[in-house]
Amino acid sequence: xxxxxxxxxxxxxxxxxxxxxxxxxxxxxxxxxxxxxxxxxxxxxxxxxxxxxxxxxxxxxxxxxxxxxxxxxxxxxxxxxxxxxxxxxxxxxxxxxxxxxxxxxxxxxxxxxxxxxxxxxxxxxxxxxxxxxxxxxxxxxxxxxxxxxxxxxxxxxxxxxxxxxxxxxxxxxxxxxxxxxxxxxxxxxxxxxxxxxxxxxxxxxxxxxxxxxxxxxxxxxxxxxxxxxxxxxxxxxxxxxxxxxxxxxxxxxxxxxxxxxxx
Length: 263
What we know:
The protein is an alpha/beta fold. Helix content is about 30%, strand content about 25%.
């Protein structure tokens, strides 16, 4: 069950694992490193301060939508969160600031994406976990094609994923999105990429050039530095992986015990 502390800075946990961190007074403060990496992507998705049309698959406590509302005023944001109880809890205890154009819907992310209008989003951010695993319906090449359909030309897809060596799941995701998009990149801590531990990785995909150099500088300067892999290095990482169809898709692997727990 969700649990929330009662300070101005709120930590939301689900079944003991940290799910979202929100600072109501400072929406630009991002506690979790993978969220900072997603924010770096949003910062480079358009000129500074320019509004965007954003589709968030997975909402949690709306950390990233709050960040986008603060840094890109006027952005139109849709958040799709499956857990209706979580949506209600967040609305009651963590209301969005006045003027934030964020439409929160309790719905299934894949079903929503399949019905979304074509070319309606500048950026899609996927951060969907059923418990501690990405659901199977969000891990197929058909899902990647739907994301491409909903994005505008030059749009950007960014997903928070999790895996560990030998990276069967992550490599399959690269194959899925590589079959649909012309440009890919992956952001993760060096220890994760080297297979030393299970952890988060942010997958990026677009039909336009990705801001790899700028993202690499920003991610290298974080408290927990990350690398940005692209081009030949990423192709070597994914070598041999094949796209996965809906009929064969599976959820992301179960994390080792304690991989994402507090403390």
